[in-house]
Model the fold of this input.
Amino acid sequence: SKTAFHADGPIENGTLNGNLYLKGGGDPKLNMEKLWLLLRDLRANGVQTVTGDLVLDRSHFVQPTLPIFDDDGNDKNKPFLVGPDSLLVNLKALRFIARNDNGKVNVVVEPPIAAVRVDNRIQALPKAKCPGWPDIRYNPVEDADGVTVVVTGKLPAGCSGQTYLSLLDHQRYAAGAVRAIWKELGGSILGNDRVAPVPEEARMIARAYSPDLVEIIRDINKYSNNTMARQLFLSLGAEFRNEADADDSMAAQRVIRQWLAKKGLISPHLVIENGSGLSRAERVSARELASLLQAAWQSPYAAEFISSMPLAAVDGTMRKRLRNTGVAGKAHIKTGTLNTVRAIAGYSRDNDGNTWAVVAILNHPRPWGASAVLDQVLVSLYSRPSNESTAQR
Done:
């Protein structure tokens, strides 16, 4: 996908006499570094001052209205609950860093978006052992101009703490991030922020492309990034949407089911809502998922797919699991976690070097200790007797 700046006026002596448009193409990994490079490219193309508005084009996706995922009380400030957007910038995350240097506590926000202000009320304590989880609380208070975050707690000298929050809507975050970087680069935008499509007569002056699919899927699977998964799902729909599709979600569902049917993968229990793990409507059976993994093993892209999943005891969401076991480094496992669900799916070796497709899904109102049970499934598979009759691998 492509993210691009467009202009509807002439550029003379470093000044764009007109509006600056930023058109999103659904890039799931438009982080601050990439946005900085894109704005550097804009500067290199002769723009320093924009006399008109900063206009965001967020029309790439046609999104459905979905039920709220309320496992966490619909706490919209939690970064992992960020929804998809045509112009998703930096996963809409704000990083708050609190530091006590020589008795003075400072709180910094990254990126430094003007609409986010800090009311620092942290009490500075004398030097002491730094706590693993500093006693710092963040209370966002919305107002007409953005949000003020009241920061309270205690922090010993020489210690620091950080947290991530999502406090702004997509429009305000994207515009604020652009303006923050543009200001650091010595640029200025004199007009306001607004949303509108790029006019046909506007010309493109700078662009950036999303990473390849292998990199995106690796980020999604290694770290269970639901926001990126939802972006990719809608991107699939946007690519193949036709007049019969009400939105990009419907288009993506249609394309996925057609692909499964073409591969002979019958999935009567499959229900797709938003393409990520954050859904109470989505369904799939363990056998259907195992059949998909077996088919993927035969794919010419098997190596890329398998390596995208966390490696037991090594990285991703499996980094701290199955350490000091025979399975360490021998299983590529995607994890799944909801308040009442624990799941694993992927590939694991036994002690004879055979590779197995493994799926285990546990649904329970109180799934405490379930992850340990699922880990034991992998340990038991690894330790199975060599002469044991084999199921289909």
Observations:
- The first strand starts at residue 2 and ends at 7.
